[in-house]
Amino acid sequence: MPRKITITAKYFRQYREKLGFVNQGAVKNFFGAKDIIPSVDFHYVKLLNKRLCDIVERVNSVVADDIKIDSFSAFKKEHIDRPFKIMKQGGILPILNNLGRRPEQVYFSWMRGYVISNYFLKALSLVFGVNTAKIDLIGDDDLKNVETFKKTPKADLEIRLDKKERIRVEMQSGFTGTNDIKQHKVLEAKRVFRDERIHSLAIHFDLYNGQVAFVKLDEIEDDSVDWITRQQMEGQTVFNIDQNCFVWKITERPLKYKEINFD
Fold this sequence. Notes:
By secondary structure, this protein is α+β, with helices and mostly antiparallel strands. It is 37% helix and 17% strand. The longest helix has 21 residues, at 42-62. The protein is globular. The chain starts with 8 loop residues before the first helix and ends in a 14-residue tail after the last strand.
């Protein structure tokens, strides 16, 4: 009669210990080579930084004179060179990862949004009629911390419209013609309004088509037909921005916030 073999969890642990591992995570990392951190191709990053500069220069060449940056070299130094230097010296570039993408690509994707958001701060000052110095950065950005690159639902900016009213602003950039808002951004906006009575506004820059949308995040209905599932985004539920929300042509002077019809 064949001998019955009982394989237990104790055996599993002993087996892994014989292999030289004291925890399950280390075993998974070993077999998947997750513990091997690829070296960053800094020549590739140099080309990506050059592309960031090219993007800013092209956009700057077509926008209205009111929102053009005064000095491209100063903008590049402050919003491209300085962040890159901080991240490189902090040693976080090699450990950037997102669904298996190369760290250089994760860096570029994040920096592209960061650069565009800073580029359009001047436009925001015109939209809301405030000085750029009064636009408070409240995002979770910390260039020395890899957690910066793990998206959080917190809005990027807070603007004081008058002595009593404040508004949270989520700045987004689109580069492919697909214009969505992630569900957790909407949920966070509704929480903020419920708890603090502060409205949240998404300003979405569709650079692919040269248009800008304004969406009141906390007023998006739960049963809106614009909620869809994006298979190319790992099946995430997103709010697809309706074309009617795009009310500003990037090549023209931005609208005043008070002039925008949200109906």
